[in-house]
Amino acid sequence: MITILRFFADYAVLIYLLLAVGLVFALRALFRAQHELSQSVFGLERELARRHISQAMTALTLVALLAGSEVVLTAFLAPNLPAFSLLSTPTINPLTTQTSTIPPELLQTIGALTPQLTATAQVTGCVPGQIMITYPKAGDIIKGSIELLGTANIPNFGYFYYEFSPAGSDTWQSIAGGNQAVQDGSLGNWDTSLIAPGNYALRLVVTDSQANVLPACIVPLQITAP
What we know:
It is a single chain. The chain is an alpha+beta fold and 226 residues long. It folds into 2 domains: 2-81; 85-223, Immunoglobulin-like. Helix content is 38%, strand content 26%. It contains 5 helices and 8 strands. The strands form 2 sheets. The protein has a 5-stranded mixed β-sheet, with no helix packed on it. A hairpin with an 8-residue loop joins strand 7 and strand 8. Helix 1 crosses helix 3 (43-80) and helix 2 runs antiparallel to helix 3.
């Protein structure tokens, strides 16, 4: 159900366009049927014309119902869904903190994908006062369970979540998130004890109330064995 709601919210513009096309065709069919009725002489012709009018009215009603449902979804339901229902990764629960769920058999693979940090590694995409990770900082060496600190507070705030990825990879593993704005405070916890030591990137993703995703704040760091 959540997947269906997310689809209709993400593709609202395309759906409105399709409904507009459907509306045009339905109106065109209605006008033609009315003209057909006005020109009909015999009873069979008039009956057929009335049937065409009924079909056109049914199509118009269906388009109106679909358009109304889409408006209710995008304007009222989607902005009020819990944050975890809008995330693409189903393992996230923004209302609670959870540890990494990466399978142990993949730990060695991930470790092999983690190139060494360089002196030029920098934080990217962060916006002071809006989207920031203040701890850990770029290049920090962390281990065990840590508390992430920072800011996730934008106009029309929707929700936030944070993820990690092996350095140099674009495959992100979700950690946790929340649907309450945070200003210079705790974003949540991260247990790194099950993650293979190596170099990683941590990113904070924030969306607005319309589920528009802003550029992520990415911090390079290193994980060591606890």
